[in-house]
Amino acid sequence: MSKKVLIVGAGYAGIEAALTLNKKKRKDRIDITLIDKNPYHTLLTDIHEVAGNRVPEEAVRIPLKSIFKYTGVNLVMDEIRDFDLDNNTLRSEKNAYQYDYLILAMGSCPNFCGIPGLEEHAFTLWSFDDAVRIREHIKKAFILAEQEKDPEKRKRLLTFVVAGAGFTGVEMIGELAIWSRSLCKEHNIPREDVRLVIVDMMPRILNTLNEKNAAKAHKYMEEKLGIEIMTSTKILEATEKGLVVEGGFIDTATIIWAAGIRSSESVDGIDVEKLKKASRVVVDEFGRTKHKNVYAVGDLSGFLDENNNLYPAMVENAIQTGNGVARNILNDIRGKEQSKIQVKMHGIMVSVGNYFAVSEIMGRSLGRWLSIIIKFMVNIHYLWTITGFRGPAVYLYHEILNRKQRKNLIEKHYTTNMRAWWTTPLRLFLGGMWLYEGIQKALEGWFTNPKLAEFLGMASDSHSAATGSALYITKIEEAFSIKTGIINFLLGVESKVVDGTAISAVEFAKVDLFHFGDFNLIPWFLRNVVLANDGVAMFFQILVAILEIGIGLMLLGGAFSFVASAVSLGLLTMFVTSTGLYIDTWWMVFASIAVMGGAGRAFGLDYYLIPWLNNVWESWRKNRRFKLFFKGGLDRWD
Predict the structure, then answer these.
(1) 3-state SS, residue 255
(2) pTM for the complete prediction?
(3) What is the pLDDT of residues 180-231, one digit of tens each?
(4) Domains within the chain, CATH numbers bracketed
């Protein structure tokens, strides 16, 4: 009989637990059900970007169906109201769910710390809905401020306060500082009329970072973004008019609370032991509660480190506890001993707007731009593990090409979109030319006779061909050059001369790399490696012909057009640094670059191939069973 595993909550921990159970169950008969009140998973680490209008909602909201496609996980959209752990039963308003094993993964929620008025008058930033609510409120505040005649009311509308200078608060105020520039321009409001304030009772911002990194972020926020930072300031009360703090009152229409969290309020009515701090559920070293078939993970779990300190409410903790609990459930089903859950925290990072970040990874502080790149890579890695190709592709699209905030001049140009089918004729023409070149080489004997030395202008004699009446020789004349030694650019004219008379001339471009005195890198490489002996020369000669034919067929069919275009660009680079590139083929360089932008996705095989590859990968990764053909294998995800 199948064992029933229920997982409540589709956050980072719940999703990791469900995917691990599905992947590791092998032949075990297990029914896995994931219950959440929403049909999507939210990237909570990036919701400040939605609140600050950097990215649209789709950037942080991932449909659960896309995550669990090709798995045996049952998805249920419901909200559990009653947890009857003695009878292994969960109940919603209309349904009841039986289980053999239960994983509590409901996450956390804001903690108002008993401060009067906060819950009624402050926005929170802890869910997708919160982020959208803040974004729309800020838009409305600027609209109303533009038409407000009373200077005091206008000032109040344009004062924005974030309470809490931890990661969430700093990231939120950073996004707002960048976005406010665009809003000021849109609504004809001077930037100096907007007041941005962040308040915290701690003596400095980002208290979990080392002092040097916190100081760097502090300086950037004050000097570059114009944010007013109030530290060592206790918040006393929130009212309809603003925020009461020690030593004064901030008149504002916008308070965003980002200073504290606790476990989900749904655990308050559950019969499990809870810690006083943040109401987290007490668990043993295996992730179990006092009910041995009930486990708690992520922000909900009171899992302790070797020093008996709570692990922070961070993604790494959620993923690793989710994975560990799933493995322990499988151990229990198989009659094996439970394994201690090991949580390894690798680092922390925080971004302040688009162009600034600080991080501490494995004990090392990274620079501003490397921190930004690392944050990108962490998100890409996570999305890759749950959605395959699709997640990173959508993430990079929104972060780089579809960013909504104000852009500089260069960004405005490279983020302009174009439909793929516009480049289809160019792709076909470029593919036809490569196929023609490859077939020509085949007909000229490139697969049977040595031709490469002659093609590269390195034949043993100086005569390269013959006309009907006489031998001709090749004459090179330099028209223009730029020589730096490292990279040398040459424009020249190649003439065919018969009996002292030029019968034809063609312009060409050539790039020399590392040409110092008598040493020229590319000719040296060609003579000593490519033309080292007849066997090696024939290998490279045949390879060039095959590549040309292959590129042509791939581009004509629109199959892996990015790869084909990249190889095309590589071959052209090889030609321009060896033989030179003739004027009538220069266009192929620019065509290769243009076609790399997804030309095969319209009227080409890439329309089917790329989704199919993603789906094959997803099916294998989630089930550890390799299948090339299955239902839904050609489903597209865009």
Answers:
(1) strand
(2) 0.83
(3) 999 999 999 999 999 999 999 999 999 989 999 999 999 999 999 999 999 9
(4) 3-110+262-345 (3.50.50.100), 118-259 (3.50.50.60), 422-601 (no CATH)
